[in-house]
């Protein structure tokens, strides 16, 4: 009987395979030692520092120890909760906090961070988290350290390394209460505006819905435009004060328009609407020119307009005649009348069915004493918009001639009376 043939086997030393899920021990101290040793060798030559950091990324685990890396570059060592150094013995003076407190030095440090994050893109998120943390630790830093961090943050916001959403950390209740947030914001915005300008700052703030929150840098009892304006103007940031004031005005305008439309749709008496608008004008320092534009827009949005050109003019005249007393209450200045004329021109141009209604609307408002001769003549002569001007000027030609003749007649009558 044939014996079953044995299969050949491989013999030799067996190696123990490492478990795939066995993770390397988290050891930030060893990482810290490597970075600090390297920084000690480079000294304060920031070009050399940037090169060292660039090269070290290939050998050290930046992804894992991002927080430790940024702690060292900013504070000189690992930070404990609250902002103190975790180990005061292991630290380096090649860091933001140990550097000179001036804009030029902070600009040089900003370049170090820029180069590092451009080289290792994955550090972007870690760096943002680090800055958010540092802002929450502000009370744990000295005034000089806060100033340096503020300048650096402003520069990094200006060049796009940081996103303006990091400013959320400044709204921390304790930081606000003790005035730390506002003082920090002064230095930050100064360096930010120095790098760019207020318009660029405004765009960045708007992107993260921070444009209307700057007053939250102060406690609730001091959250007024007046207080903000005084504080930042005295600190040399008049452009920021004006920006916030403008933002408040824009917000007030939107609120005014919304309320106006609601009052009109309810059919509130004009005297009540006029009283409300005048109070809002006074409270929010809104000009009559701005208000007349808002009222015009609100009046025109309260009705469903006929799509037929031959019918819309009649509908418009009927509708606007009803609202003439309201409009007349806010055309007490020549400039307001001119603003209204331009708004009418713009509306008639943008809404093609109204192209032939322009002259009829102007005549209606003239008869209703919403508009007077002088602004109409000025509009006709040189103050009109380019939009559809040939059409509208032609429409107005006969009426303007009539106005001029009427004006001449009244002048000659006045002379005869003299």
Q: Layout of SSEs?
A:
Elements: H1 28-42, H2 46-56, H3 66-75, H4 103-119, H5 123-136, H6 143-158, H7 173-177, H8 180-195, H9 198-207, H10 225-234, H11 238-266, H12 270-284, H13 288-300, H14 309-328, H15 334-350, H16 358-367, H17 373-383, H18 389-417
Helix pairs in contact: 1-2, 2-4, 3-5, 4-6, 6-8, 10-11, 11-12, 11-13, 13-14, 13-15, 14-16, 15-17, 17-18
Region (Disordered): 1-25
Domain W2: 246-413
Biased composition (Polar residues): 1-14
Description:
- The protein has 418 residues and is mainly α.
- It has 3 domains: 28-204; 224-284, no CATH class; 287-411, Serine Threonine Protein Phosphatase 5, Tetratricopeptide repeat (Alpha Horseshoe), CATH 1.25.40.180.
- Helices cover 64% and strands 0% of the residues.
- It contains 18 helices and no strands.
- Helix 14 (309-328) runs parallel beside helix 16.
């Amino acid at each position: 009987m044939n014996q079953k043939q044995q299969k050949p086997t491989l013999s030799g030393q067996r190696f123990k395979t490492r478990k795939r899920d066995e993770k390397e021990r988290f050891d930030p101290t060893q990482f810290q030692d490597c970075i600090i040793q390297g920084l000690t060798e480079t000294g304060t030559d920031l070009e050399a520092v940037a090169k060292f950091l660039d090269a070290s990324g290939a050998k050290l685990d930046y992804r894992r120890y991002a927080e430790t890396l940024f702690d060292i570059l900013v504070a000189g060592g690992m930070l404990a909760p609250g902002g103190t150094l975790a180990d005061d013995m292991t630290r380096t003076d090649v860091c933001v906090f140990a550097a000179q407190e001036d804009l030029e030095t902070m600009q040089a440090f900003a370049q170090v961070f820029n180069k590092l994050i451009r080289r290792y893109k994955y550090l972007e998120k870690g760096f943002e988290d680090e800055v958010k943390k540092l802002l929450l630790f502000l009370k744990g830093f000295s005034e000089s350290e806060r100033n340096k961090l503020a300048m650096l943050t402003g520069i990094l916001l200006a060049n796009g390394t940081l996103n303006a959403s990091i400013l959320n950390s400044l709204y921390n209740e304790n930081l606000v209460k003790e005035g730390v947030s506002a003082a920090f914001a002064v230095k930050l915005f100064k360096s930010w505006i120095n790098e760019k300008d207020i318009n660029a700052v405004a765009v960045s703030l708007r992107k993260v819905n921070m444009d209307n929150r700057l007053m939250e840098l102060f406690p609730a009892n001091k959250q007024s435009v007046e207080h903000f304006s005084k504080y930042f103007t005295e600190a040399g940031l008049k452009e920021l004060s004006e920006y916030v004031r403008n933002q408040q005005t824009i917000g007030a305008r939107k609120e005014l328009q919304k309320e106006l439309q609601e009052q009109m749709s309810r059919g509130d008496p004009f005297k009540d609407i006029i009283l409300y608008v005048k109070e809002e004008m006074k409270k929010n320092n809104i000009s009559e020119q701005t208000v007349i534009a808002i009222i015009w827009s609100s009046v025109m949005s309260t009705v469903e307009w006929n799509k037929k050109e031959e019918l819309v003019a009649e509908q418009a005249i009927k509708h606007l005649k009803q609202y003439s007393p309201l409009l007349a209450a806010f055309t007490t200045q020549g400039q307001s009348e001119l603003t209204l004329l331009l708004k009418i021109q713009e509306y008639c141009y943008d809404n093609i069915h109204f192209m032939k209604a322009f002259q009829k609307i102007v005549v209606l408002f003239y008869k209703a004493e919403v508009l007077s001769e002088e602004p109409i003549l000025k509009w006709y002569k040189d103050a009109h918009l380019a939009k559809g001007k040939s059409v509208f000027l032609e429409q107005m030609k006969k009426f303007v001639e009539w106005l001029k003749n009427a004006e001449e007649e009244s002048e000659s009558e006045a002379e005869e009376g003299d």
